[in-house]
Amino acid sequence: MRRTARGAALAASVSALLIVSGCSDNAGQEGEDGSSQNAGEDATRTVETGQGEVEIPEDPQRIVVLNYSLAGYLFNLDAPVVATTSRDFDYEGTFPDEWSDKAESEGTEWLPWSADGFDLEAVLDAEPDLIIGGGLGFPNGLAVDAYDDLSQIAPTVIVDGELDPWQEQLEFLAVDVFDDQETYDSLVAAYQERRDEVSENITPPEGEVAYVSFTADETPYVIIEDQGLPVALEEVGIEAAPLFEEGDFEPYAQAGDMFALSSEEVGETLTQPTLFVMGFNADTTDVETLSENPVYSSLPAFENDQAYDLPYWALRSNYDEAMNTLDVIEETFN
Asked: Which letter, b or e, does each residue of 113-126 get, where b requires 16 or more Cβ atoms within 10 Å of its Cβ?
């Protein structure tokens, strides 16, 4: 990604603010005797990331999260999140039921962001002692691009986009970042128990399935079969079609988990007997609406009444959303 003129100006502004406020990269201010004022006050730990080793507070008190999908993990780990970005940019989100109480008790605020990047001044104003970004999708590329600027504000940990499904993201955060193996084991065990229960209770659709997410302008994006949701549902017997593996498609962005289809490609690609339909970051469309469009109504899944709606948040689910997705699958195929 290229840093835009706005982004470069913002970075310069943040650098100036850092100088004025006396902030520095992972270092305490020197006292009269030359020692660090923070030395001995707060223990630190070293985390290995794709950007190298990062020294972070052992017990961070003000965490900023730059990917909505990662925020749920932090609340599951009882980490103090002072601010996070919303699911989509240019609007304030709403806290999901699973962590709304914790977010409200922490006073968690929404951070503005856009296609140009994160609002670095807003991140600075949140006064974080730890920044966590990365994960899947567009926020990953933005975090990697802004890493040097973010690291001037506070120690910054990027969750690698290769960490997928959600168990790998949770393990990295719980074990590597927060040294909380016990909570990780407990959460994964609860999920596995529920997954096995759902697997026993459903009759999976026959044949291969495809997963399609639609943006607000109804552009179709196919979810790559070896990532995220398709991998999770294979564990309950729903087999994903190898469209990306066998086709000639490119992910939509760095660490992207989807690829776009033109109207002409829809009929040639989505020939599976079963389709899952979901919105992208919002309920942008549904099976009923698409069935009025001849591009989709002529697809085998629509003709055989085997096109199913999934909630938009199932696309890039964290732990809570993965549990809720199992509920939806059980209800659909019980």
From this structure: beeebbbbebbbeb
pLDDT digits (tens, 9 = 90+) for 167-223: 999 999 999 999 999 999 999 999 999 999 999 999 999 999 999 999 988 899 999
Cβ-Cβ contacts under 8 Å for 59 (sequence gap 6 or more): 42, 43
The CA-atom distances, in angstroms, between 147 and each of 20, 132, 133 are: 21, 10, 9
Q: Which amino acid is at 315?
A: L
Comparing CA positions, the residue from 62, 71, 54 lying closest to residue 139 is 71
Alpha helices in the chain (DSSP H): 5-21, 68-76, 100-106, 120-125, 138-145, 147-153, 166-171, 181-201, 228-234, 243-246, 263-269, 287-290, 294-297, 300-303, 319-333
Residue 216 carries which side chain, given as an amino acid letter?
Answer: A
Distance (Å, whole) CA 230 – CA 44: 38
The structure tokens listed for 181 are 């193996």
Rounded Cα gap, residues 330 and 53, in angstroms: 42
259-to-1, 120, 225 alpha-carbon distances in Å: 18, 29, 11
Tokens read off for 322: 């993965």
pTM: 0.80
Q: Count CA atoms within 13 Å of residue 28 on its CB side.
A: 16
